Amino acid sequence: MAQNISDTTTLHNGVQMPWLGLGVWKTKEGDEVIHAVKSAIGAGYRSIDTAAVYGNEEGVGIAIKQSGVPRDELFITTKVWNSDQGYDSTLKALEVSRKKLGLDIIDLYLIHWPVKGKYKETWRALEKLYKDGAVRAIGVSNFQTHHLKDVISESEIAPMVNQVEYHPLLSQQELRAFCSSNQIQLEAWSPLMQGNLDNPLLSELAAKYGKSPAQIVLRWDLQNGVVTIPKSINEKRIRENCDVFDFTLSEDDIAKINSLNKNQRFGADPDNFNF
């Protein structure tokens, strides 16, 4: 169980991935993303999660350079967008991301959404990029169990990570069990429910542990074995979000949070999206 911000999980290919990272979805390119990433790295974060479609890879790259932290101590994730899916177009998309980030090697490259009729070809491209050493690990995002089974059945390499919407109102127990049994690391996007933390149980547990509701949720992620990447541009919040390693939720309290599940999404449904 993660006890320090520097703690990592080991992916099925042996690569070490930090348990906690900074997400930069909807963080504006330029000063805003540069400041957020540098604040996070200054607070001890070593994992930064971006995507081609976020439009802020260049700023992330600038922040990495300006941080003064050696490249090999950082773990950088980006994702191929839906319109770039397909074999050749995915290979080209990674080149664009590498140039924008200013990085020779990406630590983790993900398929952003399971685009029907395209994600298997896209996965073939990710396997090639992995074998060529352009990326250290490959995975998927927003894949349901049936998408994962589909990819695994026809691939040489199983996904190392599946990044999905995961929070107390959408605890994805079946998917989490499938990923666990197939050595696929589950990772949570929007772990803080896009700020919808006004819940009596979370408030009660926050008072009990002397923490904020956000910190309770992030600790719940970690104790459930889920990598988490809360997004913030506020330096105080960025620091607060990583101050989750000095307490442990009881098994009883974890069970209570698990029971909040309503299968409620704040983002799109991976089985029904039109972008």
UniProtKB/TrEMBL annotation:
Gene3D superfamilies in the record: NADP-dependent oxidoreductase domain
Residues at which substrate binds: 112
SUPFAM superfamilies: NAD(P)-linked oxidoreductase
Residues of the NADP-dependent oxidoreductase domain: 20-261
Record InterPro entries: AKR (IPR020471), AKR5G (IPR044500), Aldo/ket_reductase_CS (IPR018170), NAD(P)_OxRdtase_dom_sf (IPR036812), NADP_OxRdtase_dom (IPR023210)
Active-site positions on this chain: 54 (proton donor)
Annotated site location: Lowers pKa of active site Tyr: 79
Keywords, sorted A to Z: NADP, Oxidoreductase
A Pfam family of this chain: Aldo_ket_red
GO MF terms, alphabetically ordered: oxidoreductase activity, acting on the CH-OH group of donors, NAD or NADP as acceptor
Family: Belongs to the aldo/keto reductase family.
Name by which UniProt lists this protein: Aldo/keto reductase
